[in-house]
Specification:
Belongs to the AB hydrolase superfamily. Keywords: Hydrolase. This is AB hydrolase-1 domain-containing protein. It comes from Diacronema lutheri. GO terms for molecular function: hydrolase activity. It is a single chain. The chain has an eight-stranded mixed sheet with strand order 1-2-4-3-5-6-9-10, with helices on both faces. The chain has a two-stranded antiparallel ribbon with strand order 7-8. Helix 3 packs across helix 4. The protein folds into two domains: 259 residues, Rossmann fold, CATH 3.40.50.1820; 77 residues, no CATH class. The protein contains ten helices and ten strands. The radius of gyration is 20 Å and the shape is globular. By secondary structure, it is α/β, with parallel strands linked by helices.
Length: 370
């Protein structure tokens, strides 16, 4: 897709920084398996929430990246990207509430983009990556300080895929003084709904939310005999998404391995089966959604260098909406990388993951001006 508007431009990164970053990425690809072992984290947040996460790289690395996955996915979404990034970064990938191994939200809660943004903020606080933020009265709130450490301004970067990209945009706009870089894969702001759809969406949300709260979930959740059978269900689900989307069996297996739990098979007899662990309420509509004007305001408030990687057969980007989002960004901040192939899971599919690595790795490791 050709460049469109002042906010979108293809620029060459500074030569020295790129050479260093590419060298780091080359070492990463050649490193023996396990050089940076994956860690399983359980983040005890000060809000009382507990969030599961995966981590790669040295916890003392100067470049810190919080990775946010897509709808009904989990932290394993970054299994292809994070090990390479780990040679220069500390990467922490969350299981958002209701996904992966994180607990489901309370019956009174919704899985909105704003609630997910709060959970990500909660995780940043638990990690000690937040600096004190002045409130409206000019006082610091003291959040995010652990072991007496005070992170410097713009202390972390955000990496988001799909829904996670929308959440990352919300955080970057709300914390402009803290987010160093913003890397987006197939997700450029939250999904928008037209204002005239509000009443119907509210009605549907109230009905389904009440049914879930009273135990009227409907048919029993499907079970699968094997991991491959569960992965095949993910592959088939990707084909039903808008456009010509697809997911490789390898990518689906990675997501299914973290996103399923063992249960008793139907019919008894002691047999075991698998079912997906995500909360079925993720499929319910939220009572409220963003209007496009609000999303444009969010993007205009982003003040850090931003990279958007999008695949040829990824999520549809209809005009004029996509161009308006691009133009909403502050001049010179946005770099768009159009992959000649791939689909919505380009960062995890075997045939395109390396191309996403080559774009995002140097971008996240590049030194900032000044």
């Amino acid at each position: 897709m050709p460049a469109n508007g002042r906010g979108r431009r293809f620029r060459e990164m500074r030569g020295a920084a790129v050479l260093i970053a590419l060298a780091i990425m080359a070492v990463a690809c050649a490193a023996p398996a396990g050089a940076f072992a994956r860690e399983e984290l359980s983040l005890a947040c000060r809000s009382g929430a507990r969030l599961a996460a995966l981590a790669w790289g040295d916890a003392r690395a100067p470049v810190r990246v919080l990775a946010l996955h897509g709808w009904m996915d989990n932290a394993a979404s970054f299994e292809a990207l994070a090990p390479a990034l780990a040679h220069g970064c500390r990467v922490v990938a969350l299981d958002l509430p209701g996904h992966g191994r994180s607990p489901h939200a309370a019956c009174s809660a919704e899985y909105s983009a704003v609630e997910h943004a709060f959970s990500a903020y909660d995780a940043l606080d638990a990690l000690g990556w937040l600096a004190p933020v002045p409130d409206a009265a000019g006082d610091g709130d003291g959040s995010g300080l652990v072991d007496g450490a005070t992170p410097a301004p713009r202390a972390f970067s955000l990496l988001g895929h799909s829904l996670g990209g929308g959440i990352a945009c919300l955080l970057a706009s709300a914390l402009p003084e803290q987010v160093r870089r913003l890397a987006l894969v197939e997700g450029f702001g939250p999904l928008a709904r037209p204002p005239e759809a509000f009443a119907a969406q509210l009605r549907d949300s109230l009905r389904k939310r009440h049914a879930a709260a009273t135990g009227e979930h409907g048919p029993r959740e499907r079970t699968y005999s094997t991991l491959d059978e569960a992965a095949a269900a993910r592959v088939n689900g990707a084909k039903r998404l808008p456009g010509k989307q697809f997911m490789s069996m390898g990518a689906a297996r990675v997501l299914a391995e973290r996103g399923t739990v063992h249960v008793d098979a139907p019919g008894g007899g002691g047999a075991r089966a698998l079912r997906f662990s995500h909360d079925r309420r993720l499929a319910h509509p939220n009572a409220q959604a963003f209007h496009e004007e609000q999303i444009l305001n969010v993007l205009a408030a982003v003040s850090c260098p931003t990279m958007l990687v999008q695949a040829r057969h990824g999520w549809p980007r209809p005009e004029p909406g996509f161009g308006e989002r691009v133009r909403a960004m502050q001049p010179g901040l946005l770099t768009v990388v159009d992959l000649p192939e791939g689909s919505h899971y380009a960062h995890l599919d075997e045939e395109t993951a390396a191309a996403v690595q080559r774009a995002i790795g140097p971008f996240l490791l590049e030194e900032d001006e000044g």
